[in-house]
Amino acid sequence: MFHFPRAYLDRRSLTPIGSVQPPHPAVVVGEIIRLRSFRASRRLCVTQCTITDGTVPLNVVWFNQPYVARSLAKGVRVILSGNVSDRRGVHMQNPDVEVLSGETREFLHTMGLIPIYPLTEGLGQKKIRRLVHAALDDFLDRLEETLPDSLIQGRGLLSRGQALRGIHFPRTHDEIEKARERIAFEELLALQLCLRSATSSQAGTGIAHGAEPTLTRAFRSHLPFTLTDAQERAIAGIFRRMESSRQMNVLLQGDVGSGKTVVSACAMLKAVENGRQAVLMAPTEILAEQHLSSLGELLRGVNVETVLLSGRCPSSERRRATTLMASGRPALVVGTHALIESSVTIPNASLVVIDEQHRFGVNQRAALRQKGVNPDLIVMTATPIPRTLALALYGDFEVVTIDTCPPERHPVETRHIPDAGRNRMYRLLRETLSTGRQAFVVCPEIGERSDSGAGAAARVTETRTEYAKAFPDCRIGVLHGRLCAEEREKALTRFRNNDFDILVATTLIEVGIDIPNASVMVIESADRFGLAQLHQLRGRVGRSVHKSHCFLVAEPSTPEAIRRIELMTTVNDGFALAEHDMYLRGPGEFLGTAQSGIPPLRVAHLVKDFALLEQARETATAILDADPQLMLPENRPLRALLGDRMRQNVDL
Ligand code: ADP
Ligand code: MG
Can you tell me whether residue 21 is helix, strand or coil? Predict the structure, then answer.
């Protein structure tokens, strides 16, 4: 019953046989006056018949469908639906056929709006239609309603039963629409309720930070650059929410390089100047360390204790970190997943920041937050998320957007380099390196999971050799998952200190890495990367006043890969790319696996049903404000709707 059609065939009107007109498909009714079935060759079995409805006869032919003949006989009335051809006389070819008997049977395959289902091997349309039809007949009455009556009445929705019948066997297009609307609304409401029960934020439960800027003022006056207006607006928006007693949930969005780090640093300092701790969680150790060192830079001239907790901290450092956290002394804590381990407590944390959110799931978000007592929360995305998706997945978040990048940045010039253009690219690269800039060269992981891939390491080594040949007087470093942590860090530090001209790496450098002197990004086999990843990689350059380039080395062979490369060379704006990406891949794929715990959307479409999504969001808020635990009798249906999903989140 929940395997929904992907489309419908309109076979509602009968055509008199005399009016059948090739090449238009037709639905006709008639009596069989001639029938024969024979083998035309070893490979070809032919069934021919002629029917008439009293006007004129019509010839029909089926190829290689011997079972059709078995169900037919002379004198039987049939309904046929299919294509009409006029090669060698007007005739129907391979139509769907159903025998008309005296009973009032429904014609599942030939008449009306016929559902077309997604198929799987060994299961054909007709079989699915019959099964669904039988299931509806048997079980529809026993199905529980999943929406409160008031909601159904109030919105004029179909009942659950009506909607299921309507989506499978509609009589009109209008009925399909009504059925879709009901089911889509239900899905979106479940999604919103589910997200909200994971991160509730009620007035009066959060921490009201004080507004007196002691540290943050000093911090700003020591910055080596002036904050952009967009950054100022973001900071003001976040401060206002931190000062309120409602628990803050902010999704901080900004294109790659828009300067999210300094905004979050400011927010963290606000927690510290309030005598609290602030926690920043990054997806990788390299990033956590980079954050720690760039915070150190930014915080020069401001006296704040900082500490790192990651999986590879030596135990003495680890002890220092956990002791500091437990003591509750005002401080900045930076770390990786190690922060969510159960032994870690951060009772005095009043702000949690999660960087590059797409690497973390809903559950991890909630787990980190529970280390403190109702701390405020900021999540930062690696690349922008389309607005519709942000609303769907962060229904309980307010979106704060940094909508412009720091001035004096040139957009990264992006070019597609086919194999034949490699030497030209080398020439351009040589020119840039000779002016003192540096370059990244990124190789894809092939058939391996990220950062442990031996295949990727081999690729890096091969590529290094290739570049060493082409650039004999350049210093070339490598970075891949097969190196031990220390070696990785050393490679990155040496590149940062300009000891290498070129760094050949895997996508370990994908997120967040900030080395402004690097102005060229070469992506080898660029057709193997997704759009978000390509944009993220490109974002590693163009972080200073120097003109930057991104070279996509690829011979794309699929239409999707060609389109991705084309989009990359024409679109620089991460928000626009994200929209394209979502269209190309669909919301599910776009999200990847990280967003676990999110209910599936079978009917609802995040782009087309945007209005409905907003309504579902409002409805969810109203319901949970009035009845946070869904205990009222009228909300009982919703408990059935959420069922397992609610339980999952409560377990956190
Ligand atoms: P992202 O938003 O991609 O995380 P970062 O926070 O890493 O970007 O910032 C990118 C670079 O821009 C960093 O080198 C940072 O120091 C610099 N930066 C941030 N804000 C400004 C600004 N207002 N003016 C100039 N440079 C800035
Ligand atoms: Mg960043």
Answer: coil
Q: How far is the CA of 259 from the centre of ligand 2 (A)?
A: 7
Mutate to test the pocket of ligand 1, among 225, 402, 405 (most ligand atoms within 8 A of CB): 225
Helix (H) or strand (E) holding 304: none
Cα distance from N-terminal residue to C-terminal residue, the chain: 32
Distance of alpha carbon 525 from alpha carbon 343, whole angstroms: 43
Which residues have C-beta within 8 Å of that of residue 167, sequence separation ≥ 6?
Answer: 4, 5, 176, 179, 180, 183, 603
Residues near 353 by beta carbon (within 8 Å), at least 6 away in sequence = 264, 267, 268, 278, 279, 280, 281, 377, 378, 379, 380
Give the residue among 270, 275, 216 at the shortest CA–CA distance from 242. Answer: 270
Q: How many angstroms separate the CA atoms of 603 and 116, rounded? A: 14
Pairwise CA distance, residues 502 & 522, whole Å: 10
Using CB distances shorter than 6 Å, the residues near ligand 1 are 225-228, 231, 254, 256-262, 406, 514, 516, 539, 543
DSSP string, 573-600: -HHHHHHHHHHHHHHHHHH-SSSTTPPP
E-strand ranges in 219-271 read: 249-254
| Alpha carbon distances (Å) from 427 to 28, 226, 431, 471 | 69, 36, 6, 10
Query: Distance from the CA of 540 to the center of ligand 2, in angstroms?
Result: 10
Alpha helices in 44-145 (DSSP H): 66-71, 125-139
What is the reported pLDDT for 597? 52
The predicted-structure confidence for 139-177, as pLDDT tens digits, reads as follows: 998 888 999 999 999 999 999 999 999 999 998 999 999
Nearest in space to 265 (alpha carbons), one of 302, 314, 312, 210: 302
CA 64/CA 43 separation, integer angstroms: 8
Question: Measured between alpha carbons, how far is 108 from 85 in angstroms, rounded to an integer?
Answer: 24
225 C-alpha to center of ligand 1: Å? 9
Q: Which residues of 355-372 are buried (b: 16+ CB within 10 A; e: fewer)?
A: bbbbbbbbbbbbbbbebb
Q: Which two tokens stand for residue 53?
A: 């409805």
Q: Which regions of the chain are under pLDDT 50? A: 104-105, 448-451, 593-596, 646-652
CA of 261, nearest ligand number: 1
pLDDT at 469: 95
Q: Whose CA is nearest to atom 1 of ligand 1?
A: 257
Nearest to 440 by CA among 548, 355, 555: 548
Nearest CA to ligand 1 atom 4: 260
Per the CB < 8 A criterion, the answer to whether 31 and 51 are in contact is: yes
Question: What integer pLDDT is reported at residue 594 of this predicted model?
Answer: 39
What is the residue whose two structure tokens read 């079980």?
Answer: 139
Helix (H, G, I), strand (E, B) or coil at 520: strand
* pLDDT at residue number 204: 57
User: Which backbone phi and psi does 489 adopt, to 5 degrees?
Assistant: -65, -40
Question: Ligand 2 mean position to 39 CA, how many Å?
Answer: 69
Q: How far apart are CA 200 and CA 553, in angstroms?
A: 46
